Each structure stands twice: as structure tokens, then as C-alpha cells.
Amino acid sequence: MKKTDLKALLDEMSLEEKVMQLVQLPGDTFGNDAAVTGLSNSGIPENVKRLAGSTLGVWGADKIKKIQKEYMDKHPHHIPLMFMLDVIHGHKTVFPCPLGLGATFEPEVAEKGAEVQAKEASADGVHVTFSPMGDLVRDARWGRVVESTGEDKFLNGKMVAAMVKGYQGDDIKDSDHVASCVKHFAAYGGAEAGRDYNNVELSEHTLREQYLPSYAEGIKAGARMVMTSFNTLNGIPSSGNKWLMRDILRKEMGFDGVLISDWAAIAEMQNWGFAETLKDASRLAMEAGVDIDMCTECYSGNLKELVESGQVNMELLDEAVMRVLELKNDLGLFEDPYHGASEEKSRKVSLTPESREAARDAVRKSLVLLKNKREALPLKVSKIAFIGPYADEKEMRSSWAISSDSSTAVTIKEAAQKRYEKSDVKVKFAKGCEMLDNNTELGFFTFKKDDLDNENNKLLSQALEVAEWADEVVLCLGEHFSQSGESTSRVNLSLSDAQMRLFEEVRKKGKKITTLIFTGRPLVLDDIEAKSDALMICFRPGTEGGNGILDVISGDYSPSGKLPMSFPYCVGQEPIHYDRYNTGRPKPTEGATIFTSRYLDCPNEPKFCFGYGLTYSDFTVSAVSLSKDKLTKGDEIKASVTVKNTGKVTATEVVQLYIRDMFGSRVRPLRELKGFEKVELKAGESKTVEFGITEDMLRFFTINNVFESEKGKFIAFIGFDSETDNGIEFELV
Ligand code: BGC
Fold first, then answer.
1. What is the pLDDT of residues 511-529, one digit of tens each?
2. What's the gap in Å between 263 CA and the centre of ligand 1?
3. Of 317, 351, 385, which residue is a domain's last?
């Protein structure tokens, strides 16, 4: 439809029709014929169901086509309904969770994943995905860190942009793609004490320098939708924050797409004590520029009256409705309301060998090896025992892969049996224990099993028998599927008592131990690390988890993943991140530490820092050399190193550039990631890696409240993690 026709359509619509374009209803409203027969369903008035502009959480081509047809037939202007869904890291083929994708340090992997998800979801009738999440995360207590690519704004920005491109392709009209929604604007990851939905207090410079850039990258990449966040930011709920939405998002970032509230976030402004009534909340949200109200009666129940009484002016309403109509139009829904969806296409494009292979590749690249002693990995022995609740567990997705089916996943056991079936290597498996302890709270339910102690004793003795038989044990441990995700904040970041007991008992057998950890967040792994020969983080690897992990632990591929978030020594260190400040009393590396910034009982640094991860080989990096040591605006310094694989096997390193600004009109972080490059080298091979450093990379939000650079000294560090001390000074003149 032409823009002029859209405008004509808008002019023809009644006030009620316009309002309803801004209303999103939960999918179960349309789950049966109630929506079209006009019968009351879940208390939603008939006119709302008949006219609401979008819905979420429904998928399946035939189902969606039926709903769409019946809806459009009844709609006075036959405007199509828009279908949205949380396709976060997989629709049918599940890729590693976003935190795992962060660990790949390879935006192309995230892009490929998004492309596969878009194709599968679109064939199933989905028009918009609520992904990617651009929230910067520094606190492992917050369960939603699983949905982020980590603690660094630069890495997140690259990942978010890549995902937007993957989802949307060049044109969202193309039926292999969907529109992408960047969320949760803004700073949801800064929730106080890591407790979900909580207040966020941030200075403007921290907000702008650290928290906003990754959303901005998503918007620059063309994301068609943005979602507000649940939190308040310095006392103001996002859905009613005019400054944040109108000044920053729309004016500064240039976002002209649809802004949707998070689920019930407009109504929740009343609970926050920011709006006295739902009507006030609706007015505040409209003034802030929130176009769609997700799943409450705020807009449907109040907006018409607000406009009629002149409290919300018609232009504001028209603008919002137009944005929704434009998105529908750009998706091509006026011409093809099904966006090419069909059951046949869905069968054809879902879980194909190619998409499984892409997911498997992503798994291989997401694994982070944190320790490898006594040559525990890759596995070389002839009798291997896989022990633990994840040894044969299909549920390797995160709780944010709602439209997938975990029965399609390949477990460790299935992958190992297949891999070794025609070899001399013998494999055995044992569960060892239940994953959780009794009375573990999981949100939707509390884990409880009668006779758990007896059951665990039985499982343990089977596991010990298998361990006794083996040359090496691979312990497959981790968090439960429901322990990370929304509303899963935790103050205890250790494994369950049952798993720790299993670990200790198996260890007593004196075999080599490799521990694999399945998790949606950084965990406290102190004891496990100390007592394992090898330790590898597998995140939530998804459908091809077993295959991808076996590819790596068997030695076909060297691990190359790097931590996208710091792993702490203990929970008390949270929030923790590498780009912290020096303080006025930095802790000295040697000598007296009293009256310095430190803990009495724990290091300042995390147990494993951002950017850390081993390979099966050894790498060296030369001192950094600069093409010159003075930088002027418009010019570039080339910083280079020679990286050498001094080990015995081909492997991939992630070479990372960090810059420290030594002085500033506002205190500057100890260092910030400014570039990375993955290099694959054969044993003995070396390569020069070069990064350009330009003035714009040195800008920050200065005392003048603008992004600008300041002359002075900087250090460029190039190495293999965020604690590298391989640095060289240069000056901006
Ligand atoms: C979450 C969003 C999600 C939305 C729709 C909310 O509870 O915070 O991330 O997109 O639900 O499912």
C-alpha cells in the first residue's frame, strides 16, 4: 500500500478503531473461536477482541491463518492482525542462549542464528520477534543475563546489530524474515541487587556510555520495534519516561519505528506509585510515545475517553496508529496477511540439516574452556564415563525458547554413543543425582520429590560404579532450565547440594575429571574449578548441544569461546565487571593493602574475567607496536601484535583490543574493549593482527555533557582477555 493510501485509511478509521490498533492481546484470546464468534474470553470485551491490532505468543501456520482470516473478515477496514512472538534463540532449531552467543565473539554466528530463527518463525506465521535484548548485564544474580550477550557494551552492540540484520534481512516484506524488536529500553539490566523488575539508579554518563550504546546499535541496524523496560530509571518508569523515549530514543537515536510496552508495564506504573489511575498511566505512556500497550486494558479502556476529553490530543494518537500501520504495511500484510506462512513451508524450513549444522557450529564456538590440566581435554582415553544430571538431558534450551520442542535436542549421551559406536572407545552413562534439591523454588513450581534421598543414593551408587570402571569422568552438571530467565533472580549462585555431593563422591575415585557446566548465568565454581582437571562452560546450548560439545571435547575442534561476563569468586562480589574504576585508593599488587579499596576476604577481581577462555593450544602475543604514538583528529594509529600458536594443534584465539584513558574530565574506566579479531592458526603458525585507533573511539560523555574526546595519554592493550597487561602508551594531541 502506498503511504498516501495508508493516510487515507487512517482518516477513514473511527476513533475506536484507531485506539485498538494500539492494543495487543495475549494469544490465548485467539486460541479458540471465541475471538471470532464474539463470545467473551478471559473477560476481554468483544469489541476489543474484534479490533485489537496485534497479539503475541501464537504460532503455527494453519492456526494463525485461520485467526487472521476470521479477524480480517470482521474488521471494518479489513486491517490485518500482527502476530508477535518471543523467538529469542530458537523457534524450532535452538541456538545457544544469547549469553552463549556472546561467548563466540563472532557476530556472524549470531546473525546466522537469527536468520535461521526468522525463517522458521515466519513460515509459522510470526511477523515480529521480541529480540534481541540489548540490556547490559553486570550482575549474575539477575536471571535474565541468559538473554543478554554480556557485560560489555561494545560486544553487545556488535551482537545486537548482527541479530537485527539476521532477523530482518534486507526487507521485512520478504517472507523469510521478521521484524525485530530491540528490548528492554532502557537499562533493565541495572536492576538494583539483581532483583528482577527493580529500580535502576544510574548517573547520566554511565547510562549513556555503558547502557545505551547496544540499543543504539540495534536501532542503527534498522530494528523496526523497541520495547520499554519494567524498571524505573532514576525514579521514572520507562513506559512513562518522556525524556528517555522522546528525547533520547526518538530524537537522538533517530528511532522512528513502533514502541511497544513490555507486558503490562503501562499498568504497572500504578503499582510503582507513578500514576494514580490506569487512565493516568495511559496518558503518561502516550505522552512518552509508547505506541502499543501489551496485554492490559490501559489503552483499550481509557484512550478513547482521553482523546475525547482532550487530555491526549488526536495528533499524538494518529502518529502512534500510523507507526503501527506502517509496520504492517512494510511487512506486506495488506497484500499478504499471512506473510508467506504455510504448514508445508514450515515443515520444509524447520530443523533442516543445514540449520542444525549452523546451530552445532554455534555451540562449538560458544564453549568456554576455563581450565585444562593433566591433559584432561581433549578426551584421549578408552573408557569414558559421562555422569551427572546433564549427561542425558534434553532440556538444554533456556526458558526463552518457548516455541521449540526439547525432544528434538541431541543429548550428550546420544551424541557420545553415535560418535564412539564404531571406535574402540567405550562409553557409559549415569545420572548420578536429581538436578535440584528438595524445595527448590522455580517460579512456576517448587521442586519436590518424595523419597529424594533414597533416589539420589541409588543414582549415586550407579554413578560410582561407572566412575570406577572409567579412565576419565566427564561430569555434566549445571543449573536447571527454570533457574535462569525472567523472574529468576538468585542470591545463591552455586550448584545444588545434590550435585556438589555427586561431584565430591565421584572425585574420590581419583579419576581424571572434566566438568561441563550448563548454565544461563555466571556461577560460583570455586571448588569445582579447584578439584576438576578440566572445566568448560556450555551455557544453554540448545538443540545441537550434545553434538557441538562432543565435537569439542573429543578434539575435532579446539574451544575458542571467551567469557562474555565475569565469573565471580563469590556472590558478594556482584555486580562485577572488568570496566570498573581505579578508585582513589587502588589496591596495590604488592605490599600493604590496608585502607585501600578491597575486600578483607576476597580479591577485587573475578575468578575468571571477561574475555577469558583457553584453547587446546598455546598462544603468545608480541608487545604492541604502534604506527606512531601521537594521534590527531581525522587520523589513525595502527596498533599491531604478532600472535603465534606455540602449541601442538590448530586453534582459534580471540585477540582483544582494550583502551585505557589515563585522565578525563570525568573519571574513566580502567579499560574498555574497542576491538576484537578471531584468528585461526595452525601449530607453529603466526600472524600479525592490526587494529586501527581513531579519535572517535576515544570519545566519552565528558563534563560538558556531550560525547567528545579529550587530549592526553591513553594505553592500548592487546591480548587474550580483559586482564592483559600487554599495553603501550599513546597520546591524543
Ligand atoms: C518480557 C519480555 C517479553 C514479553 C512478551 C515480558 O514478560 O519481559 O521480554 O518479550 O514478556 O512475552
1. 999 999 999 999 999 899 9
2. 6
3. 351
